[in-house]
Amino acid sequence: MTPPRAPAVQGTITRGTTNPNRLRRVDRWLAGPAAARLRRARDPLVVDLGYGASPITAVELHRRLSVVRPDVDVVGIEIDPARVSVAKPLERPGLSFRVGGFELPLDGRRPVFVRAYNVLRQYAEPEVAPAWDLVRSRLAPGGLLVDGTCDEIGRRSAWVAVDAGHGPVSLSVSLRLGGLERPSDVAERLPKALIHRNVPGERVHAYLGALDAAWARHAPLSSFGARQRWLATVHTMKDAGWPVLDGPSRWRLGEITVGWDSVRPGS
């Protein structure tokens, strides 16, 4: 009998640049508001998809999620075999690396989280939805794909949470508050599904404009620190009717998450 063919690798090699601690903001969210999904998972499988030229982000993800679930199993998946070869010596129980792409070659296992960071930003916008759908089809029930982008050292970060059954459910923005001029500075780091939609008439443009206006309104609070100013900003957004999720413990981190319908691209 002829053995079944392995599925073709789906994706293209990206630049792969990364830095230690670059993804701390999204990891903190996975270990916080999203952690219940991992705690209740039968198979605590997590994928770092397209981890890049260095495996450091997968190593860090394993360490951070081990606090939530000590038996977490993190698999770093990269389309470039040379990058996988570099990562292999770092393998240990609960951390491994393999060649693959959006098809997620996991021998039939279904991950509860797939973190794809600074990956789809290098694709064309029409390629995003098919990539989301392919990964969603591989997730465990209740699993999440986190598609995000950040700057080189992780001071500005934004990600879309894409649920296995419901599609995109939220947009999160996380910022280093010290030295922040305006929240919309994150615009150049929006995920690919939104980055070209930051124009008048689009919901994400209205959202960032409202966030800037609230930040400017609370400028007098700067004398009490950027954190107090940010907390007041998020409260103003919530009071204005924006579907702000989570609570002050997250907002204090320079984070704000809103429901996807409030920012989703127009038709």
Automatic annotation (TrEMBL):
Q: What is the protein name stated in its UniProt record? A: Methyltransferase family protein
Q: Which organism is it from?
A: Kineosporia succinea
Instruction: Recite the lineage of the species.
Output: Bacteria, Bacillati, Actinomycetota, Actinomycetes, Kineosporiales
Q: InterPro entries this protein is in? A: SAM-dependent_MTases_sf
